[in-house]
Amino acid sequence: xxxxxxxxxxxxxxxxxxxxxxxxxxxxxxxxxxxxxxxxxxxxxxxxxxxxxxxxxxxxxxxxxxxxxxxxxxxxxxxxxxxxxxxxxxxxxxxxxxxxxxxxxxxxxxxxxxxxxxxxxxxxxxxxxxxxxxxxxxxxxxxxxxxxxxxxxxxxxxxxxxxxxxxxxxxxxxxxxxxxxxxxxxxxxxxxxxxxxxxxxxxxxxxxxxxxxxxxxxxxxxxxxxxxxxxxxxxxxxxxxxxxxxxxxxxxxxxxxxxxxxxxxxxxxxxxxxxxxxxxxxxxxxxxxxxxxxxxxxxxxxxxxxxxxxxxxxxxxxxxxxxxxxxxxxxxxxxxxxxxxxxxxxxxxxxxxxxxxxxxxxxxxxxxxxxxxxxxxxxxxxxxxxxxxxxxxxxxxxxxxxxxxxxxxxxxxxxxxxxxxxxxxxxxxxxxxxxxxxxxxxxxxxx
Length: 447
Known about the structure:
This protein has helices spanning 7-25, 35-42, 71-84, 97-109, 124-129, 137-142, 152-157, 180-185, 195-207, 222-232, 250-264, 276-282, 296-300, 332-335, 338-353, 355-359, 368-371, 374-377, 380-386, 406-417, 423-445, and strands at 58-64, 88-94, 116-120, 159-160, 163-164, 167-168, 170-179, 288-292, 307-310, 321-324, 326-330, 364-365, 392-393.
């Protein structure tokens, strides 16, 4: 990375890079009691409540990893909730995501962890198997919600073995950002939407004296770009069951060839470090970049930077883009206390209904009703990137799936972009490693 990154970038990047270590280090909860059994043993019918808590005063511990620019938005929502609910006090504990995931299972096992938490979608199945979080189907039904109220892809990804373990709060996809002043310098008025338009725009900018308009990093966010392109070219990361790696394919090789072509042509510097393309975009040395929706608030802070956002261009034969999602979860600790459980339902429902405010942190609301609100269309960046929801690429609901990225295809992408290894060779080796890890996870989690 060229310089100290904003906290939002650091926490999210660190989380995604550390998941392999987290998966190996976090202990499984005690065996013998399923998440469903925890509910059946401790929660009477209707125990989740209906989102309106009138019981005795209760304190809820709410843990999340919103350490960056998104943190103040959630903190404000929590403060407003507390002010409106004198019988519920929500205490928010914020950790780096890389610390959050190993600490939560141990804390919950010691009956000292959160009642309510936020988890990324690729962590739900893992923590369901560990019996750290409980199914939310009864809560969701009690709130009068169903699958129809949420983006279908995110809803399905939050399901494990036929039960919902997360209530989706948002979707955060990769987006395409452009320096509009530099596009205009090259005679381009509209952001390109397809391969030819994108490649022509890069060439036109070089002709206009902008020597390196599209920086390709060796690490973050190159592997997210690879996922998007892999699926655009007709490939996939894993088979449908999430049991075998499938990224060592012609589509994977083609995706990496497209990325490295900009280095070969001089449109990108070589050996671009972690997030250095984002710093260069701020400094107007990098004209076009693909990065997370959350970066919108970072660009907005830069005086004199003229920029616009659009969906990631369709480079391959179909549209596809990487995305993740934050989900509310309820731990088994809360499920063992009727008052905390009902209060947790009230808190989750209240924030979910106000996810338009959360969207301002750089997110697309998961709830359809919020996205259909005319006020959401006024959030121009979020609304533009929400158009990608029908084709976002989300991980399969498989325990331990978050452990696979770092040591496998992310490493392969790094090696190829640095010119250390041939694409086919790197992806083949990474896929073999991924298959071993997937098999180990099936043994480890018994799922």
